[in-house]
Structure formats: C-alpha cells, structure tokens
Amino acid sequence: MKILREMVLVLLATVYWVGFSGYQEYTSDSIPTAIAQPVNQYNAKNAGEHATWQLGQTVTVYVDPNATAETQTGVNNAIANWNNAGVVHLQRTDDVNNANIRVINGQLADPHNIVFGLTQTKQTSRQINSALITINDQAIAKYHQRDDMSEQAYTNMVCTHEMGHALGLNHTTPGTNSVMQPGTDRNIQPYDIQRVQMLYRH
Ligand SMILES: [Zn+2]
C-alpha cells in the first residue's frame, strides 16, 4: 500500500505538471461503483507489457447500462479497432457476472477532474484475468474541444486507449504516433495494430 501511495503521488505530480493539455490518467486503489465489487484485488494500473489474455480466448466486455451513449458507442469503436488487428477477439456481453472486462463511467480520484480514463487489471505475471475501465465522461464533455475533437470522437479515442491497456499494452514513448501515447489526440494507428499483434503472437 505504501508503494501504491507513492505511485499515486508521482502520478499526481505528473498530472499537475502536464496541466490541461492532452490526455491524462491517474491511478487509485478505490473502486468507483458497485459493479466493480465482484472483481477485487486490482493492484496494477496497467497490465504488464508481457501479460495477455489467454491466446484464442474470446474476451467479453460489459458496459454499465448507466454509462452514457457516447461511452457505449466508444466501447464499440474500441472493440472494432482492436479486433481489426486479427489477434484478439473482444465481444460485448450483457452478462455482468461472466464479463472479462467491465466499463463504467465515473470520476477518478483527481481534484481537478481532468483525468479521462483509468484501467485496472487483475492478473498473474503472464495472464490477465479481468479488467475494469473507468471512463470519465464528465471530463471528456468538458475538455474535448481543446483538441478540436467532437465529444464522440474523443470518447472513442479514450475508450480505445483504455482498452489497449486492458489488452496488455503500456504507454508508448514520447513522440510516437499512437493511441497509446499519453497526450494523444488521435485514435488507433498502424503502430498500435503492430504492437498488439506482436504481443499476442508469441
Ligand atoms: Zn494510458
């Protein structure tokens, strides 16, 4: 818990430094809503780069019915984007109890409410077992115009970025043309497709 608290402080400092430009994230050990309760022990912000879902597995995605229409559409966009790589099979489900990935709207533990998304995973060293994605619809609604993007396009981008984490991708290094780039203003890129293919073809 001490390490986690220190990580939060470092991330808070990062958020402060980055200010209001671009896409930011934050990590917290609090689980935002009751939907998250059946899946506990989230202990990592992102899946490790070499952890994946079981190869060949259909990964089911549940979206909280109370999530906004933009989030519902954004998750569908994220699923289509990553399935297009041909190495993972994400599929929507209405069955919360058998969902592998759950998506909710919520504010993150961020005093400025400028953090757009968070993905938490439960995993062993090599395998991801479940994930919870929180999409901060309020922050997106408030700030999407800074990047000259519609609220829907911005939500699509955030959902694709977070789903990338849920599949095991970490952030790319600065200057990379990628949806996994912190501060990105673009949806999925050819490089992202290559990365998920490399991750799942081992
Ligand atoms: Zn991220």
TrEMBL record:
The lineage of its organism: Bacteria, Bacillati, Bacillota, Bacilli, Lactobacillales. One of its GO terms (molecular function) is zinc ion binding. It holds the Pfam family Peptidase_M10. Its EC number is 3.4.24.-. Residues 66-200 form the Peptidase M10 metallopeptidase domain. GO terms for cellular component: extracellular matrix. Keywords: Hydrolase, Metal-binding, Metalloprotease, Protease, Zinc. This is Matrixin family metalloprotease. GO terms for biological process: proteolysis.
